[in-house]
Amino acid sequence: MDDLYVFHLQQELRSVETHFERFVENHNHLVGGATPTEMGSHDALWETVEELYKEVCSKLNRLISSSKVESNVTDGARDCPISSLDGHLVDLKLDPLAIPSFDGDMCKWLAFKDAFETLVHHSAYPEAFKLGKLRQAVNVASVPLIGGIYSGGYQEVWNALKERYDNKKQLAELHVSRFLNLKAATLESSQSLLSIVDTVHESLRALRVMDIPIHHWDAIAVPIVVTKLPAVTKRDWCMTCSPTDIPQLEDLLKFLEKRAHSLSSEPSTALMVCRQQRPVRAHVATTDAALCAHCSLPHRIAKCPTVLALNLEQRFEAIRRLQLCYKCLRAGHSLRQCSSGNCRNCGRKHNTILCRAKVNNASTLGSSITSPVSNNVPAEVQTTSTA
Length: 387
Prior knowledge:
Layout: H1 3-32, H2 39-75, E1 84-85, E2 88-89, H3 109-121, H4 127-137, H5 154-165, H6 168-180, H7 190-209, H8 218-226, H9 231-240, H10 249-264, H11 269-289, H12 305-308, H13 312-321, H14 356-364, H15 379-385
Antiparallel strand pairs: 1-2
């Protein structure tokens, strides 16, 4: 192919770009005066025309490039191989890179700005095309300055967006605050450790992009991160540190990455920790239950010599004061909720050591015991213990 053909292709490409600029300009005017119900059809038209524009430009650019390559081959000027398959040039069509959306969240601004400037702002696309891509990538509902009937040309809108969100002071405060307020990890799990690592990397990377000197923050950053670690991980990290040298933040993050990968192969780590703790709690509970609630000696209250030495009314008073069940002599539930057995002497709903019938039998043998029924005895117990 000769140079005339390449020139013709370049002219066609410029013509397509001009027509697309005119379309974008007219489309913006239509959108500015459209009602909410008409926006769907305008958006559909934009997507269709934009897809055709990109497809035509892609084909023309490939033809121009292949024509130049063939011309260089003919002239012997090519000194590097071109990918081929069975002697034919391979025509690869790559999917366009997606521009991250921006909804006004300051945390997302730096990532959006870098991607948009690389893919669109610094490209050779027409200004109208850049403005259309900017309006597509930014949520108009969250960032109203992008919309409106007429918001100016692309450069004006882009400058206004940067003036509002590209605020170094606010961005620095935001990412420093995010680093200082790391969420503490309570479990020895891979997910919790990687969450800390990712947050630290994202915050410090953002500060580094803003040319803030974070390279010498180890003496401050490491203790902050260590306070957010679970107990076992914190202990293992401290065991690896020098007693005199200041640890490096990068070494701590690598240690956490390595430990997270080791924990990921042990999914039941948290469950194992809980199971290891259960016997300790059970032992404490058993020990407490074996102590008498009245004298704190290791026997049941039903066998307590001090309680058995009291008369029946005094026993009722002691049980009431300790807030124990009148049936099983344990705490934590009422007489109505108790599932323990009844009195072994009379079969009614009270403990055997509180049985009035037993006391009455003792009275017939000559014992002098005061009647147990008093205002301090619950009505339910009085009723069930009355012969």
